[in-house]
Specification:
Layout (H helix, E strand, L loop, with lengths): L1 H19 L5 H26 L7
Helix pairs in contact: 1-2
Amino acid sequence: MNIALGSNAELQTQLYIARKLNLIKQPVFQSSINESKEISATIRGLWKSIAHKTPTEN
């Protein structure tokens, strides 16, 4: 999960750089950032769900 979150954070950094350099337009940037944030939330939710399970629930 850490690797997935780190990779997603790296993607966000690349998107910010691409936007700052005008390599992508604002709507594409915003859509991609929003999707990336949604993916992060999903990963965190999955992680929380797994962490809260007791050994008998696995």
